[in-house]
Automatic annotation (TrEMBL), chain A:
GO CC, alphabetical: plasma membrane
UniProt KW Transmembrane keyword: yes
Location of this chain's protein in the cell: Cell membrane
Principal location class: membrane
Protein's name according to its UniProt entry: Na+/H+ antiporter subunit B
Length: 137, 498
C-alpha cells in the first residue's frame, strides 16, 4: 500500500462500479436527452483514473482487457462503420437506420447508437492513453 | 446517393484507422499510406471528371436536406484542389518511405498524416461554414503534432509559435462564425450567399468579413500575419514541411477565395482594394525576406509567403481572368513548391546540411538533381515556357485590364527578385565548387529511389501544367466562371428553392 490513502482505496471499490454503470446509463440516454457517448466516455475514463490514483497506472493496464490504443481504434472504426452501413443499403452516408421495434431496456436502436458507442470507446481510449502516459512518467 | 463527394474524406479516415490498427507494424503502415493516398488521388480524379461533365456535385450528409444538415458541395475549383491535394499526399507518402525515421512512425506519424489529409480534403469539399471550421481544426490538430513530433529543441520552439498564432486564428474564425449565425440564422454557404446581401446593416457584414479575412489571413500567411511561418516551417522533417507548404497555407487561401466570392460580396470596392494592397505587401515582404536567407528551407518558406501574394492579387482583381489566373497559380505553386522542398530534402540527405554556404558542387555529382531543381525554380520565377509564366501572365493581363498598374509592376518586380533568389540557390548549391571536404561528400552514398520518384512526379506534373497550358487555362476559366456566378452554386445546393 506504500502510504496510499485507505479511505480512497475503499471508496474506489464502491465508486468504480457505480461510475461505470452511470457512464453506460449516460451513453444509452444520450440520443434525445442529455448525455451521450462523449460524456459517458468521460465518466468511464474518470472511473479508471480514480482507480489509477488509488492503486497505480500499471494496475489500470492490467484491469483493461485491451490497451487504450485498441479501444480508440475500435471506437473510430465503429463510428466509421455507423456511417457506412446505410451506404451498403444504398442510402447516403450517415443516414440514420433504425430497428423497427424498440428493444427492452435499450429503447430504439439504430446507427446513431452505434456511432455514440464508437465515440464512447474513443473518448475512454484517448483519455486513458494520455493520462496513463503522463501518470507513468 | 453521391458517395464520390465523400470519398476524398472517407478514404483518409479509413487509412488513419488502418494505420492505428497496424501501430506495431511500421513497414505495413508505410505501404498502406502509399496505397491509401493512391486511391485517394484516383478518387479525386474521378470526382474531377464528374464535376467537369455534370457540374457542381453536392452531398447531403445523413440525408438531412440543405440548409439544415451538413452539405458538401464540390465545384470545379474544389475538385481541382482535391486532385492536387491527392497528388501531394501521394508524393509525400512515397517520400516518407525513406524520409521519415522509424521513431517518428512509432509515435504515430502515419495516422496523423492521414488525418491531416482528411482535414484538408474536408475543407475543400464542404459547403457549410461551421463545417469548414471543424475541418480547419482537424487539420490543425494533426499539424500541431506533426510539427512537434520528434521533439527536437528547434521543433518545439517552432511549434509554440505555430500553435499560438493558429489558435488565435481559430478563435477569431469561431467568433466570427458565431456572430454570423446570430446575424443571419444560417451557416450554409449557399444560403448565406442568398441572405447576406440583403442583411442590414451592411457595416456589420463588412466587419464580419474582416474578421474572416484576419482568421484566414493568418492561416494563409499574408502580410502582416505571416511571421509564424518562417519561424516554424524549417524545423520538422522535410516530408512534413513539404506537405505543410503544399497544402496548409493553400487551404487558407482557398477559404478566402471561397467566402469572398460566394458570400461577402457586399462592398467589393473596399475589400478588393484592401486585397490588392495586402497582396502587394505580401509579395514584397516575402521575397525580400527570402533574399536575406542562407538556409535552404527558410528561403523556400519565405517564398511561400510571396507566392500567396499572387493568389490574393487574383482575388483582389476579381475579374474572371484574374480568378482563373489565381486558380492556375494555386495549382502551379503547390506543385513547384512541394517539389522544391523535396529536393531540399534530397540535398540534405546527400550533404547533411541546409546551409547554402556549406553546400556546393552538386551539379557535378548530381546533374539530374540539378535539372530537377532548375525546372520548378524557373517555373516559380515565372520564365516561359513553364507553368509560372502562364500563371503570372494571366494575372498581369487581368491587372492591366483592370487598370491596376501598381500591383502589376509589383508583381513583375517580385518575379525578378524571385529569379534572383532562385539563381542564388542554384549558384550556391549546385554551381559553385563544393565547400566541404571531398571525403565528407563521398561518404553520404546514393539517394533512395523512393525519394527521387515522388520528386520527379511533381516536377513532371509541373512541367506538364506548363506544356499543356491551353487546356489547363480553359479549366481555370471554367472554375473562375463558377466562382463568379454564385447562383450556380446556390442552385446546386438548395435545388429549386428561391
Amino acid at each position: 500500500m506504500n502510504g496510499r490513502s485507505l479511505l480512497l482505496n475503499v471508496a474506489v471499490r464502491y465508486l468504480m462500479p457505480l461510475l461505470l454503470i452511470f457512464s453506460v446509463f449516460l451513453l444509452l440516454r444520450g440520443h434525445n436527452e442529455v448525455g451521450g457517448g462523449f460524456v459517458g466516455g468521460l465518466v468511464a475514463a474518470a472511473a479508471f483514473m480514480l482507480y489509477a490514483i488509488a492503486h497505480s497506472p500499471a494496475e489500470v493496464h492490467d484491469l483493461l482487457p485491451v490497451s487504450p490504443r485498441t479501444l480508440f481504434t475500435l471506437g473510430l472504426f465503429m463510428a466509421l462503420l455507423s456511417g457506412l452501413l446505410p451506404v451498403f443499403g444504398n442510402q447516403p452516408f450517415q443516414t440514420g437506420l433504425w430497428l423497427p421495434e424498440p428493444l427492452p431496456v435499450l429503447g430504439k436502436v439504430g446507427t446513431p447508437f452505434l456511432f455514440d458507442t464508437g465515440v464512447y470507446l474513443l473518448v475512454i481510449g484517448v483519455i486513458l492513453h494520455i493520462l496513463l502516459t503522463l501518470a507513468e512518467d | 446517393m453521391n458517395l464520390a463527394v465523400m470519398a476524398p474524406i472517407l478514404l483518409p479516415l479509413t487509412s488513419a484507422i488502418l494505420a492505428l490498427a497496424a501501430w506495431r507494424a511500421p513497414g505495413l503502415q508505410r505501404w498502406a499510406a502509399v496505397a491509401g493516398t493512391f486511391l485517394q488521388f484516383g478518387a479525386a480524379l474521378a470526382l474531377l471528371n464528374r464535376v467537369n461533365q455534370s457540374g457542381i456535385q453536392t452531398f447531403q450528409v445523413g440525408s438531412w436536406p440543405a440548409p439544415f444538415g451538413i452539405t458538401l458541395a464540390v465545384d470545379l475549383f474544389g475538385a481541382i484542389m482535391l486532385a492536387v491535394s491527392g497528388l501531394v499526399g501521394l508524393s509525400v507518402a512515397l517520400y516518407a518511405l525513406n524520409g521519415i525515421d522509424d521513431e517518428r512512425v512509432a509515435y504515430g506519424f502515419y495516422p496523423l498524416f492521414h488525418i491531416l489529409l482528411m482535414g484538408v480534403n474536408g475543407a475543400f469539399a464542404t459547403g457549410d461554414l461551421f463545417n469548414l471550421y471543424v475541418w480547419f481544426e482537424v487539420m490543425l490538430m494533426a499539424s500541431f503534432v506533426l510539427m512537434a513530433l520528434g521533439g527536437t529543441r528547434a521543433q518545439l520552439e517552432g511549434s509554440v509559435k505555430y500553435v499560438v498564432l493558429n489558435l488565435l486564428a481559430s478563435s477569431l474564425f469561431l467568433s466570427a462564425t458565431g456572430l454570423l449565425y446570430g446575424l443571419t440564422g444560417t451557416l450554409n454557404l449557399a444560403q448565406l450567399a442568398l441572405v447576406l446581401p440583403e442583411t442590414q446593416p451592411h457595416g456589420l457584414t463588412l466587419a464580419l468579413s474582416m474578421l474572416y479575412l484576419v482568421a484566414f489571413g493568418i492561416k494563409a500567411a499574408i502580410f502582416p500575419l505571416f511571421f509564424w511561418l518562417p519561424a516554424s516551417y524549417h524545423t520538422p522533417p522535410v516530408a512534413v514541411t513539404a506537405l505543410f507548404s503544399g497544402l496548409l497555407t493553400k487551404v487558407g487561401a482557398y477559404a478566402m477565395l471561397r467566402v469572398f466570392t460566394l458570400i461577402f460580396r457586399t462592398d467589393p470596392i473596399f475589400t478588393n482594394t484592401l486585397f490588392l494592397v495586402l497582396a502587394g505587401l505580401t509579395m514584397v515582404t516575402g521575397v525580400l525576406g527570402a533574399a536575406a536567407q542562407w538556409d535552404f528551407r527558410r528561403l523556400l518558406s519565405f517564398h511561400i509567403i510571396s507566392q500567396i501574394g499572387y493568389l490574393v492579387m487574383g482575388l483582389g482583381l476579381a475579374s474572371q481572368a484574374a480568378l482563373a489566373g489565381a486558380i492556375y497559380f494555386m495549382v502551379h505553386v503547390i506543385l513547384a513548391k512541394t517539389a522544391l522542398f523535396l529536393i531540399a530534402g534530397i540535398v540534405e540527405r546527400l550533404r547533411g546540411s541546409f546551409d547554402l554556404h556549406q553546400l556546393g558542387g552538386l551539379y557535378r555529382s548530381q546533374p539530374w538533381l540539378a535539372l530537377g531543381f532548375a525546372l520548378p525554380a524557373l517555373a516559380l520565377a515565372g520564365l516561359p515556357p513553364f507553368s509560372g509564366f502562364f500563371a503570372k501572365l494571366m494575372l498581369v493581363r487581368a491587372g492591366l485590364e483592370a487598370g491596376q498598374y501598381i500591383i502589376v509592376f509589383t508583381a513583375l518586380g517580385v518575379s525578378l527578385l524571385t529569379l534572383f533568389s532562385m539563381s542564388k540557390v542554384w549558384g550556391e548549391v549546385f554551381w559553385k565548387p563544393a565547400a566541404m571536404e571531398p571525403a565528407a561528400v563521398a561518404d553520404r552514398g546514393g539517394v533512395p529511389v523512393w525519394m527521387i520518384l515522388p520528386t520527379a512526379l511533381l516536377v513532371v506534373g509541373g512541367l506538364l501544367l506548363g506544356l499543356f497550358a491551353e487546356p489547363a487555362i480553359q479549366w481555370s476559366h471554367q472554375a473562375a466562371f463558377q466562382l463568379l456566378h454564385p447562383d450556380l452554386y446556390i442552385q446546386a445546393v438548395l435545388g429549386g428553392l428561391p
